[in-house]
Amino acid sequence: MTEGLETRGLIHACLINRKGGAKFVTDSSWQKWKKKDGIVWLHLDYTVDEVKNWLMYDSGVVLPVAHAMIEASSRPRVSSIDNNLLLILRGVNHNPGAEPEDMVALRLWLEESRIITTRKRDLLSVNDIITKLAIGKGPVSTADFLAHLCEHMILRMGDTIDDTEEQIAMIESRLLLESEKELRSEISELRRQIIAIRRYLAPQREALHKLPNEKCSWINDSIRLRLREATDRLIHHIEDLDAVRERAAIVQEEINSRTTEQVNQRMYMLSLFTVIFLPLTFMTGLFGVNLGGIPGGNHSMGFTTFCIILCGLGIFELAVLRQKKWF
């Protein structure tokens, strides 16, 4: 099983030296790493069969944890098991051509001297930690790794939240200049994006809120404080997202209100025309009956007189409507 893991599914393996640096290996030398030497971190692609087999049979983790590490769909959560932690977190998708709301899941199994992470798609927050380890400024312990990861994931979320705020601000300014038809699709797409992002941020807030209270001896008070600070920033992001959602709802209501007002104005004008022309239509219908005895039917000025009467009636109706302030 281990040989297959080395060739397929292992994204990287590194040996963290507890001084901020790490040694990245491409062979099975990470198996010889001793607890006193530092921390081993395995980053895996859970969609590969070799990874699934290794997690279930050779990794040394219990089966429920192994199943959680390879689940295709999962919500953010945290569980402590025998002084170890199982976490499932979600980060904003910054991969090229991807939608930000299509969030990337990262599954973590954290022991005091071993870290196992699994994912399907690339996550920039993980790459940030790899970069720091490469220059000797990375995490020095498993708890520090956890704090670094949470901080970077929430920092990356801030860029997406800022983008939504800029989008709603632009839509609000364009609302004064452009027609509602051009903005309706944009505001609907923005609201859909906000709902999709918040769908995962809410359970992630609960998971991070619970995390500092987990009973793990290798998490000290300073790390717990950093985790609480990260949770506070996440809550702030969620509040900003809720504010953007409310602003989007107000813009949507304004668009609907304008549309309704336009329809009402047009219906009002049609009603006025109906009020004016209904008596005139009645008169023309009555005098258009092809029967004998129509007044003025045999008079040479009958048609002219009838037109003058219709014009006078129309002017009288306009005067009455004007007096009643209908327009």
What would your notes on this structure say?
By secondary structure, the chain is an alpha+beta fold. It has 2 domains: 2-258, Beta Polymerase, domain 2 (2-Layer Sandwich); 265-323, Methane Monooxygenase Hydroxylase, Chain G, domain 1, CATH 1.20.58. It is 57% helix and 13% strand. It contains 8 helices and 7 strands, in the order H-E-E-E-H-H-E-E-E-E-H-H-H-H-H. The chain has helices spanning 2-7, 49-58, 63-70, 124-134, 142-174, 180-210, 221-287, 302-323, and strands at residues 10-16, 22-25, 39-45, 77-81, 84-91, 104-110, 114-119. A 7-stranded mixed beta sheet has the order 2-1-3-7-6-5-4, sandwiched between helices. Strand 6 (104-110) and strand 7 form a beta hairpin. Helix 4 crosses helix 5 (142-174) and helix 5 runs antiparallel to helix 6. The longest helix is centred in the last third of the chain and has 67 residues, at 221-287. The chain is rod-shaped. The chain starts with a helix and ends with a helix. 28% of the residues are buried. The model has no long low-confidence stretch (mean pLDDT 83).
Number of domains: 2
Global shape: rod-shaped
Low-confidence stretches: none
In percent, how helical is the residue content?
Answer: 55-70%
The CATH level-2 architecture of the largest domain is identified as 2-Layer Sandwich
CATH C-level name of the largest domain = Alpha Beta
Instruction: Order the strands across the largest sheet as they lie in space.
Output: 2-1-3-7-6-5-4
By CATH, the superfamily of the largest domain comes out as: CorA soluble domain-like
Strand percentage, roughly? 5-15%
Continuous helix count: 8
What is the typical, i.e. mean, pLDDT? Answer: 83
Output the helix-strand order.
HEEEHHEEEEHHHHH
Termini distance? 85 Å
Class from helix and strand fractions: alpha+beta
Using DSSP, what is the number of strands? 7
CATH fold descriptor of the largest domain? Beta Polymerase, domain 2
